[in-house]
Amino acid sequence: MASYRTPLDPATFTFPDPVITRADGLLAMGGDLSPARLFEAYYRGIFPWYDEGLPILWHCPNPRGVLLLDQLHVPRRLERDLARFVYTINRDFPAVINSCATIHDENHGGTWILPEMIDAYITLHHGGIAHSVEVWREDELVGGIYGVAMGGIFAAESKFHRVTNASKAALVHLGRHLQKQGFAAMDTQLPTTHLATFGVKAMPRSRYLQLLAEHRDRDCPFLPA
Question: Which CATH number fits domain 3-62: 2.60.120.20, 3.30.70.1120, 3.30.70.3550, 3.20.20.30?
């Protein structure tokens, strides 16, 4: 029987083995967004993704979008544009995640970054697990990206822009920062044509889970040394 048909046990934080994930990436449903459950999910390569009115749905897609940080590619046109922005790290995590939710809602008529998810990731941020990169033009927040650090793997969740190239600049700044801090890879969840321009490749789930197991217990500080 497919794992998603049975809700997660609310008394434990155990997930089914990601190997039995459905073809569409869905692994399980239910549970909650507590810090302990989210930590266990990311530790095992699983993330929540669902729409309003649905139970929490947990995913581990195959293939996985993965950027090996030593393979980060910056298009030449974008490289020339990066200097017009100012970058900060963890300066305003709530503003970044709320902007991601608002702009996705405006552009697509809905968002998976629901209020309870925003609260959950802000809690992870206060716990030193979730982080953000902010992109500024003068005093205006014009772009950003946020995600979860799990040892030497960073799981990028969402990004946004209010001016051209600001979200791309956030992705590049994040990638370069992670590389300096000794991270091995950035998980983008799903491979896309857009992300492929930065070096993101489709990686079989089994290989990603192996990569995660190799690096998730490393001590890689996110903040600059």
Answer: 3.30.70.3550
